[in-house]
Design brief:
heterodimer; A: alpha/beta; five-stranded parallel β-sheet; two-stranded antiparallel sheet; B: alpha/beta; five-stranded mixed β-sheet; four-stranded mixed β-sheet; 12 helices
Chain lengths: ~400, ~325
């Protein structure tokens, strides 16, 4: 022992803390269009460069370039822009509603809107997504009623989840949006099971799962990848790498040594690493993985490289652990802004129409909040108390019946 | 009617359900080609095909997570956990997901899964092949927990569990797989053949969940037991000479409270017997329920005979396992109170 060098525990630290200059210089960001787009039938062993690069379509001049350009129609891109703008407008309005004491909790998805919006539009109606709490844009792209979202957030008498669930932990089966839960990662394997069930049933539906980069450290991530690989499950497994898990930088989840997309290699499934703020790149990668899944070629892991532009939740102050100006230094920009500029560049959009759409969405969100407020905000209105005892089982047992009577008698 | 041991009865239940419902599928460690380490899934893959009964990676969390996803899709998976001692890596899936899915989604999704797992001691299984974890599941709102004690019930309860739209933890007393075991470990263990409860119909039938069975009628004291302890209780009652009424709970969630209360009101005394360690065990809940509902009828404090509050030991198998002698002692004690 005495003749040997002393060991030293390494603890990863982020490049910048509060008061320091944001440090994103070390990120290698390939030019848009630089990454090859292999045939969907390519074997995994021929795809092992892809997890270490970054698939990008929108370039610095706002043009869509390269082999991953999904060549979307203008209408589709405008639908995507609309979903992203609606998500951000809703987030800002409901964050404010929390500060006004109308609800107990809220989480924004600012900066990550392209992911859910593009994937929601790219997949089919019968496909099922297994979301995290930061994929509101999936629902916005599919036209989920705004009022019902606010009713859930206010937990009022018309809450679609009957007041049982924390705000924003939605469930929307008809919109291909699986029930959310507060415990992270535990639904990643459900998506694999759902996909296995679709294959078992000789259906043509696929599943899509989300997990944050922080949660890839959970055992659920490994389990899901193992099962997806073993049974060639028709599933798209998405890691949203937004650089932060609450206050912990991605290095604490393993990002300093490898990429999250590269984790796919050890499981023998393709791994793609994609510019998460590039609506067109998100779409293209999703379509590629979906085609593989639908043709019985199995699962794909996609890392969406993005940045959590706001605090983790209404209970978090990010200036306590990262530079206050870091969001504006993020090198991949803002997903709304990038798609907007592209649409303008191709002559399909202009500032006037953009302002008009922004105003329309703002009015719609305000109206939804107002309508939900009429029913009631948290604590001012709630579903009938017997709902507390429903849904534990298909039919309540004697305990639940007795306890319901006890509550009603109080 | 054919005579089956518990393994054959469980195999028959799975066979019937695979035949009857294309949404039923079975997976778990070694359950496919090999037919399971206890033979419960023997020949099911051969008969019903690779996709209906297949092997899974050694990943309890992954097995239950995928089963829940399959259930949400609309299938009726029957995953196996090789030993109940190894169910804990799947605990988060069972507690946070399977048990809560219907409630939290406002009824949009649910998990009609039946998790089969061999449990219990008396087999020199040591610390990780002997545990009885039913109390930790009983405490989880949204899970049902079922424990058969004989081949007839095993098949009927398993079919009911698979057909149930709620998640069921189906614990199989492995000590009873081949024959009824009454705790008299120094005597030759008899096979199921010839036992009246080993007469098992070939086809489909059910034993309802939440319905206890009165195994022995008596007037002096009520004994509550389940699993292997039902047979230990019969031996203990015989040894004690006390005219005890024995109730096999069969499912502990939902619990057949009416049968329990009716019996204790009649006898005025109650002894609870389980293998699991005592502190925080399901016996505590049973004691509280009996006390709350039968207080004015009770003539003695409720007694609990259970495993000790230690990990399940190897060399001390018969010092730990609550045998007929300990029950007989408890029966004499409550009769003197």
């Amino acid at each position: 022992m005495s003749n040997r060098a002393k060991l030293s525990l390494y603890v990863p630290e982020p490049n910048a803390r509060p008061g320091e200059r944001p440090g994103f210089e070390h990120f290698e960001i390939p030019a848009a269009g630089a990454v090859r787009c292999p045939d969907i039938g390519a074997p995994e062993r021929e795809l092992r460069d892809l997890p270490y690069t970054l698939i990008r379509v929108l370039d610095d001049q706002d043009a869509a370039v390269g082999p991953w350009d999904p060549k979307l129609s203008t209408d589709t891109m405008i639908a995507g822009l609309r979903a992203m703008m609606l998500t951000r407008t809703f987030d800002d309005r409901l964050f404010r509603a929390h500060r006004q004491g109308k609800t107990s909790f809220y989480m924004k998805s600012t900066g990550e809107e392209a992911i859910g919006a593009a994937q929601s539009l790219a997949l089919d109606e019968g496909d099922m997504s297994f979301p995290t709490y930061r994929v509101l844009s999936w629902l916005m792209a599919r036209g989920y009623p705004l009022k019902d979202l606010v009713n859930q957030i206010f937990n009022n008498a018309e809450d679609p989840l009957q007041g049982r669930q924390l705000p924003i932990l939605y469930s929307a089966r008809d919109y291909g949006f699986y029930s959310l839960s507060g415990n992270v990662g535990s639904r990643f394997g459900h998506a694999v099971g759902w996909a296995m069930a679709s294959a078992y049933s000789e259906d043509d539906k696929i599943a899509l799962a989300y997990i944050g980069e922080g949660t890839t450290a959970e055992g659920d991530f490994h389990e899901a990848l193992t099962f997806a690989s073993v049974y060639h499950a028709p599933v798209i497994l998405c890691v949203t790498n937004n650089q932060y898990a609450i206050s912990s930088h991605a290095g604490i989840a393993g990002a300093d040594e490898t990429t999250f997309a590269a984790k796919a290699i050890g499981y023998g499934i393709p791994g793609l690493r994609v510019d998460g703020n590039d609506f067109l790149a998100v779409w293209a990668a999703t379509e590629w993985a979906a085609e593989r899944a639908r043709s019985n070629r199995g699962a794909t892991l996609i890392e969406f490289f993005t940045y959590r532009a706001e605090g983790h939740s209404t209970s978090d102050d990010p200036t306590k652990y990262r530079p206050a100006d870091e969001p504006s230094a993020w090198p991949l920009g803002d997903p709304l802004d990038r798609l907007k500029r592209h649409l303008i560049a191709i002559g399909a959009w202009d500032e006037e129409r953009h302002a008009a759409l922004a105003a329309e969405l703002d009015t719609a969100v305000r109206a939804a909040v107002k309508e939900a407020e009429k029913i009631g905000t948290l604590g001012k209105s709630k579903p009938p108390v017997e709902q507390m005892f429903e849904g534990v089982f298909e039919e309540p047992d004697w305990r639940l019946i007795e306890q319901r009577r006890e509550v009603e008698g109080l | 009617m054919p005579s089956m041991n518990m393994i054959q009865a469980l195999n028959s239940a799975l066979d019937v359900m695979l035949e009857r419902d294309p949404k039923v599928l079975i997976f778990g460690e070694d359950v496919g080609y090999f037919g399971g380490v206890f033979r419960v899934t023997d020949k099911l893959q051969e008969k019903h095909g690779l996709k209906r009964c297949f092997d899974a990676p050694i990943s309890e969390g992954g097995i239950i997570a995928t089963a829940i996803g399959m259930g949400a899709y609309g299938l009726r998976p029957v995953p196996e956990i090789q030993f109940a001692d190894y169910i804990l890596p799947a605990f988060d899936q069972l507690v946070s997901e399977a048990a809560r899915l219907r409630y939290r989604s406002g009824g949009e999704f649910w998990a009609p899964i039946t998790v089969r797992s061999p449990y219990g001691g008396g087999i020199f299984g040591g610390q990780t092949h002997s545990q009885s974890p039913e109390a930790i599941f009983a405490h989880i709102t949204g899970l049902k927990t079922v424990i058969p004690s004989n081949p007839y019930d095993a098949k009927g309860l398993l079919i009911s569990s698979i057909e149930c739209n709620d998640p069921v933890i189906f614990l199989e007393p492995k000590r009873l797989y081949n024959g009824p075991f009454d705790g008299r470990h120094d005597q030759q263990v008899k096979p199921w053949a010839g036992h009246p409860d080993a007469e098992v119909p070939e086809g489909h039938y059910t034993v309802p969940l939440g319905k206890a069975a009165v195994v022995r009628e008596g007037e002096a004291v009520t004994v509550l037991a389940y699993g292997t302890m039902v047979h230990v209780a019969l031996a203990g009652i015989e040894d004690s000479g006390v005219d005890a009424e024995l109730i096999d709970l069969r499912s502990i969630v939902p619990l057949d409270i009416d049968t329990i209360v009716e019996s204790v009101k009649k006898t005025g005394r109650c002894v609870i017997l389980h293998e699991a360690s005592r502190y925080g065990g399901f016996g505590g809940e049973l004691t509280a329920l009996v006390q709350e509902r039968c207080f004015h009828w009770l003539e003695a404090p409720v007694e609990r005979v259970a495993g000790w509050d230690t990990p399940y030991p190897h060399a001390f198998e018969w010092d730990y396992f609550p045998g007929p002698k300990r029950l007989a002692t408890a029966l004499h004690k409550v009769m003197q109170d």
